[in-house]
Amino acid sequence: MYEMKPEYFTGIDFIDKEHARLFAIADEAYQLLKNEFIPDKYDHIMNLVNELKDYTQYHFKHEEEYMESIGYKRLLSQKVAHEDFIQKINEYTPDVIDENQKETLLELLDFLATWLVEHIYKQDKLIAE
Question: What is the pLDDT of residue 95?
């Protein structure tokens, strides 16, 4: 369901590859939601959230270094958006996840779908211009 479509490509290879991994993580979350054979999804959700935390920090660092190297004028707003993303992901604590796993997955998927479309399509594509 979640895939890196042509309209999301920036034309900057390493950024596009890293974005593709973010789409893949979102798709893993979607597949987990749909998997009825795993009744207790807590460990899987925790793994996805931890991977998102680690991978986005890695990706944002690369992206910000690149923007800085090219003198990108919107670097500050990008940094703020990246910090907002990390802050939101950090809200997914073990207690929150354990309380209602399905609701957590639905909320996470909604957040990721909005982020991937809005941020990549509307903000990150501007980096290449």
Answer: 95
